[in-house]
Design brief:
Elements: H1 2-15, H2 17-56, E1 59-63, E2 79-80, E3 88-98, E4 105-112, H3 125-128, E5 134-138, H4 139-145, E6 152-158, E7 164-175, E8 186-190, H5 191-198, E9 203-204, E10 206-209, E11 221-225, H6 226-229, H7 231-269, H8 271-279, H9 284-320, E12 322-323, E13 338-339, H10 345-367, H11 375-380
Parallel strand pairs: 4-8, 5-7
Antiparallel strand pairs: 1-10, 1-11, 2-9, 3-4, 3-6, 3-10, 6-7, 12-13
Length: about 375
């Protein structure tokens, strides 16, 4: 084995430019695979973390007739707050219409406890304000309505009897969240205020669970676990990774094709050398091993080269993040301004093994022909 290894290294060093090109292409594939996967893993981790902290908590308890994806379910999707509400933060959802800059826009009023600590929503700002009807909105809602802190806004709604009513609310805070589900088209006010103006006293549309909540069977309410709520993000990231796999296949295909062609050409041009090895007593298996090792060493050299220029790149991205264009942040997904890649041990090890195994297999395929060579003809350099 030591002899084959020494000969393989010697042959690769002798090839110079051909070896450098193969190693460079293979190293680019190695770096790109890790880079793209780490960005997707970073997005997955960031989106789930933000969604938990801002929207989902430890899970949600939804009214049976309420569907977050169905705007019209808001009308009937609410009920009286159950007695056993320990560890739950009630949220009451109600339809409304706003008139920013003499425009009419449909919106959703959401009432929450100003003292809640379950999410990062700055509902405490509602208590700090001296305005008659204080409200908070997200940065996306502020951009869509051209509102800022201190602005007053006319809001119209219907109470529980169907009668229209209207009042002016004051924007007391604009929060910055990466989760559009609590931002787009929504205005947050105190739940007590929303109960008072609508007449739906002590009612809620959903509850956000905290660490102290113990799941029990409650009439008219359905508990959705944190895992179920985050499933959409998991599915989306999986779909994105599947799409990116085309890029991986193309890059790996180009690199492995280059190694395959190099090995085929090498075996064709070095028939006299192969015949000499066999004539001197080296078994065909050892000669096959020699050429397979040459291909495998390409992958080792590619890992070293990729580590040399990839490590600084990975470090910079882990420190400063990968910038997300502003247009992508308005697509309704939980996207931060920058995504911090996550370089997991599983990702790095899996990519290393993929490169090593693939290069070894591609090197072995053309080397199998050596087992059928006639040493006498090989010594003469004749094709077989």
């Amino acid at each position: 084995m030591n002899l084959e290894l020494k000969l393989s290294i010697k042959n690769l060093l002798g090839a110079k430019l051909r070896t450098l090109l193969n190693v460079l292409v293979l190293s680019i594939s190695f770096v790109v695979i890790i880079l793209l996967n780490s960005i997707m893993d970073g997005w997955d981790a960031q989106a789930k973390k933000d969604s938990i902290e801002w929207e989902f908590g430890k899970g949600q308890l939804l009214h049976n007739q309420y569907d977050p994806n169905d705007f019209f379910s808001i009308l009937d999707g609410h009920g009286q707050i159950p007695e056993n509400d320990i560890g739950l933060t009630p949220v009451f959802v109600h339809q409304a219409t706003i008139y920013p800059q003499n425009r009419m826009m449909n919106t959703i009023l959401k009432g929450a406890d100003p003292n809640q600590k379950t999410t990062l929503l700055p509902t405490h700002k509602l208590l700090e304000s001296k305005a008659l009807l204080p409200a908070i909105i997200g940065k996306r809602m502020a951009e869509a309505t051209n509102l800022k802190i201190g602005d007053e806004l006319l809001v119209r709604w219907r109470d529980k009897n169907g009668a229209f009513d209207a009042a002016k609310i004051t924007i007391v805070d604009v929060f910055n969240s990466n989760v559009p589900a609590i931002d787009l088209g929504q205005i947050w006010i105190s739940i007590e205020t929303l109960w008072s103006i609508t007449g739906h006293k002590n009612e809620a549309t959903l509850f956000i669970a905290s660490d102290s909540f113990v799941n029990t069977n409650l009439d008219s309410w359905k508990f959705t676990s944190q895992k179920e709520l985050l499933q959409n993000i998991t599915d989306l990231v999986s779909q994105k990774k599947t799409g990116q796999s085309i890029v991986y296949l193309l890059l790996m295909g180009i690199a492995l094709l280059a190694i395959f062609d190099t090995q085929v050409l090498s075996i064709y041009r070095r028939q006299k050398e192969i015949g000499t090895y066999i004539a001197l007593g080296m078994t065909r298996l050892r000669v096959v091993r020699l050429f397979t090792l040459e291909g495998s060493i390409y992958s080792f050299l590619a890992l070293i080269l990729g580590g040399l220029y990839g490590s600084p790149l990975f470090y910079l991205l882990s420190k400063f993040g990968f910038p997300v264009p502003p247009a992508d942040q308005k697509m309704g997904l939980a996207l931060a301004e920058t995504i911090i890649p996550v370089y997991s041990f599983k990702l790095v090890l899996g990519t290393v093994l993929l490169v090593l195994i693939s290069a070894t297999i591609v090197s072995y395929l053309p080397a199998r022909k050596i087992a059928k060579l006639n040493p006498a003809l090989a010594l003469k350099g004749k094709q077989q």
